Hints:
The chain is of the alpha/beta class and 323 residues long. The protein has two domains: 3-144, 3-Layer(aba) Sandwich (Rossmann fold), CATH 3.40.50; 147-319, Dehydroquinate synthase-like - alpha domain (Dehydroquinate synthase-like, alpha domain). It is 43% helix and 18% strand. It has helices at 14-18, 51-63, 78-90, 104-109, 148-165, 167-175, 177-181, 185-205, 220-229, 236-254, 259-271, 284-291, and strands spanning 3-7, 23-28, 40-42, 71-76, 97-101, 115-120, 123-130, 135-139, 302-307, 313-319. The strands form three sheets. A six-stranded parallel β-sheet has the order 1-8-5-4-2-3. Strands 6-7 form a two-stranded antiparallel sheet. The radius of gyration is 19 Å and the shape is globular.
Amino acid sequence: xxxxxxxxxxxxxxxxxxxxxxxxxxxxxxxxxxxxxxxxxxxxxxxxxxxxxxxxxxxxxxxxxxxxxxxxxxxxxxxxxxxxxxxxxxxxxxxxxxxxxxxxxxxxxxxxxxxxxxxxxxxxxxxxxxxxxxxxxxxxxxxxxxxxxxxxxxxxxxxxxxxxxxxxxxxxxxxxxxxxxxxxxxxxxxxxxxxxxxxxxxxxxxxxxxxxxxxxxxxxxxxxxxxxxxxxxxxxxxxxxxxxxxxxxxxxxxxxxxxxxxxxxxxxxxxxxxxxxxxxxxxxxxxxxxxxxxxxxxxxxxxxxxxxxxxxxxxxxxxxxxx
Length: 323
């Protein structure tokens, strides 16, 4: 990855990044008003995040004359960027791409790390690759268009970064909650830059998720399971928020997570209007059964991310708690 551009209006710097190379700009169809003419519309949905979509877009890129020296520019949230990033990784055996993040969730969860993926039937992100974009564009103007639900969706992943790695960042979130919720651009830029720096420090040491990067899965074992049992009708960040609380409850019993950590985590999630309890129609037993199919498992075991203290998460390898 060459660079990350963060700020208001930075999407207008995309032509400078292209350096006269042939390109195609593919945009979430709901965001056309943010871009000039010539963009191609992408139907962003989990049901469209599949092999058929990748095949169809490969044909469109070929029709638009993209060769192995061209650049794909993709603008949207996680669904759009996951799908088009995978396309870039395999089109003509891989072409460079530029990721333009338009949701807080994609800025926090997908802007670094190079993961791309599509769904297969009901299995989320089953097929994927590591193909980092050569440039990342984080334009803060997109955040003003997000609903409260979508904004909170992204805050779950941002809070996660502070919980697992940096207590000072968590202090910043607690002290600036009101201003963040008002979407003050200066504070948002500092928040996103800090959050990305935490993730960059982890990913730079472990791109392929062999060790340290597993920390980023905190809350996702239960979170992914909850998404599956709810047929993906719960926002990802909401599922992760509940997943972090459930994992804390489990590790408090088995690994000594402190009551102070439990309370502080839940309090901050609630301040950012995130759920912290399972919906009444679901129970922990069903979640464990769903988690048994997690793609990160090894046999009948799975690595757990345990938060004993704020900012000091650790990986417990080969846990068999699902049994």
